[in-house]
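Page 47, continued from p. 46.
Same chain as before, 619 aa.
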Amino acid sequence: MNKDINQAKDFVISGVHIGEHSFQPDAIIGEIQERCIDEGMNFVTIRTGHELVPAHYFYEWAKFLADNKIYFVFLYTMQKAPEDRVSQLDSEIVANIKRIAGEYFIGDMIGEVGSSFACKMPGYFVPPHDPMPKQDVANMQVAKDNYIDQVAKYVEVDKSMGIDDVVSVEATALNKYNIEAGVSIPMLELMCGNPEILVSSIRGTARAFNSKIWGTYIAHEWYGGLRHDDILKQKRLGLAYKYAYLAGSNVFCLESGDEKIMSYGYEFDTDHEYCRQYRNVMRDFTELINSDVRPRGGPKVKVAFVQGNLDGWGGWGGSSIWSQFEGEQWGHSDPEYTWRILDELGSKRSWSDVANYGNNDLSSLPAYGQYDIIPVEASLDVMENYDYLIFTGWNTITDEIYKRLEKYVENGGRLFMSAAHLNTNPERDGEVQLLYRGRFERLFGCNIDAEGIRTNMGVKFVKNSLIPEVMYPGTDDYVCDPIYSSGYASYAKVELCGGSIGAVFDDSFFKTSEISSLPIALVENKLGDGVAVLLTSLDYPGHGAVYPLYRAIVRELITASHRSCDIKVYGSDKLRFAVYEGGKIYLLNTDYDSNIEVTIERNEKQSTYTLEPCELRII
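Result:
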């Protein structure tokens, strides 16, 4: 694998999953030939059954796969091991597979750990599913540590047998914890949840931890929609492949549907038109990746959302954090609701939104069309790849994290977070305990007090941000209606120490007092070559009263990144796009029914393209 990864063309492989609906060891080679090799593909996942697989089958499969240059992983070798074994594999089998297959053996895959151990509902856990970790834990740190311990058990088994790369197939946004537990290659179970959010999460995590590759495991039969005879479900499969390719996925695996469909009360065999449609999509995708030379390194990204320390939002499945069911405080609430901002990206702001500015409406997507979600644990070198870092979700701040953020801004970054993200308390419903007792003179140019104010006043912005391309809905004289009043919320009391006002709370149309005497909603501070922006909310911005203000700021930062970009791409908000090194642009029309017109501006020139429904165009 390393040989191919080091070539100029990006490493991209695609194939199928063996063993979803049936598993017969002596039929596997024929199935690989028919479903993978004869279709021109070069990757398989082999999911073993519960019966012990004799070792000679592993060797026969490994030789056949290597002889035909097919990359492969095994799945559920532990979850589906016989009761008297920890895995279908052992050290001797692994050593022989590595000797026989060499680079074509990618590793062993563990599955569904995030959704099972951090997101599921209590009723999900019936045999043969794994038992839940302990309940009613003290705080978020303990809950996260329990999760790491649970995943590490699988990783330790694989490592003890000589597996070099442990792969995970994960349906949630919790890949950073899987990697912390020892996983080295993350794969996303695509179509569970919002794929655009979860692709951004796995890509950002893979970049942060320098994973060799990352992939998408397309479970379309189960999660592309419950109605197999539905036309939109059939079209959705093609869009899933195209979007993941545009977004930089290295590995593609179709879980099922091409051989037979046996879900939701349906049963269709290989020759049925629905199964043929799956195969047609795979063939078209295989032609695409064989004909295209996608540049290495993934798409350019200039905006990253930060997944905070101890954040447990999974993005799909369940409504409790860390699968803790014994207390209401563990249910999704303000910290998790903050993530809803990502559901808005890809949609333009309403035509009537008076806070949307510019020569063109660029509010749908950030610079270069993509954003990453990176773990707050990312190194400074990783953070500095992004022009903007925007905090969302839960964060328990530490001295180490704070100093790294400080350095990021000093070196030219733009940081946006709320006072809630500066809390050191890992207790789910504990009191706010601000880092450094709220003294943030250097990074934010202010000191804040958690004994602040509780208000439902609206907000007035300054007109000119310290970030030149940012255009707040502000005036020169503060004579305007206060906006974004949506109910009571708690905000810190602010003492400026070099920072400047970005917005204040007010309840009058007129300027009835000096702005400096009004409670401060937003602080901006110039530090070195960068700017740090602090929303003074002590409630997480997912709080209903805070969210409209948070949303307005984030949407403007997104637009500002695109507004100042050297390549601007706009048109319908059904458009998705990515830009790679060398200026190669991938355009995708996600509209099922209508053509869209796309304009690209670069080098002071405009080019216009028309994309048919579901079309991927490479410029």
